[in-house]
Amino acid sequence: MSMINKMLDSYKPLIIIPVIITLIALAIFGTVGLQQGIDLKGGSEAIIQLQQPVTTDQITMMVHNATGVHGIVVIKTSDNQMKVEIPGEAADVTSLTNTLAGTATIQSFDSFGPRLGSEAMKQVYFALVFAFLFMSLTVFIIFRNLIPSLAVIAAALCDIIIAVGGMSLFGIPLSVATVGALLMLIGYSVDTDILLTTRVLKRREGTVNERALNAMKTGFTMAAAAIGSMVALYLSVRFLMPYAQILEEIAAVLIIGLVADILVTWLMNLGILRWYLEGRK
To answer: Which of 28, 72, 115, 244 is the most buried (most CB within 10 A)?
Structure first.
């Protein structure tokens, strides 16, 4: 406990750690970019059941011959199953079925037109901006104090940036499902930051360090439970249900964001609050 107290007393250098990680995440996003899922960029997605051993390259070539489209992505989800993503206009499922005949059968097929994908992308941006604005408004109403409110908002923004940087780094596409994960992350981030801010600013019993430690116990318990459940989901899908890739992507985004939230909340946000309280004395 004495080591934690030392960290709490020398909090100013710790504030920079989440800031550096956020800047690195921004740099990764700026250089690597972020893939878009088929449901946002438009195209077709098919789950195929293999009837004989073939490689992903062979399936890619067969699908290219049937559609004439470049940039086809084939992912092996199990020993006898693959997911095929075909960008651009909706593919002809009849032509695809005939080309794959004898090699694989199509279990499911979905198409998303480019115009529909463009509209979905606009809705995604609207949802993220709308959620962030209303979150900010709610925080200002709760605390009615500029510095603590800005600290909570900055922490949520850092969590999202780090999560998006992780998506860029690990090749997790931006899709309707992963946008949902980012929205969940905003809610979770604000939850832990409000917990910390309320305990440190509004309670009067004990010292600032004691109130911060009390909040930290609750916050780490919440984080451990959330991360543990997401790791269990990720591993279950990865090894037992590889066809449910959407769940794997949601879990991966949340794991990255939840780990980031630990650093951002208990290093940056707590440091800003300590600095703020010292300035008021």
So the answer is: 72
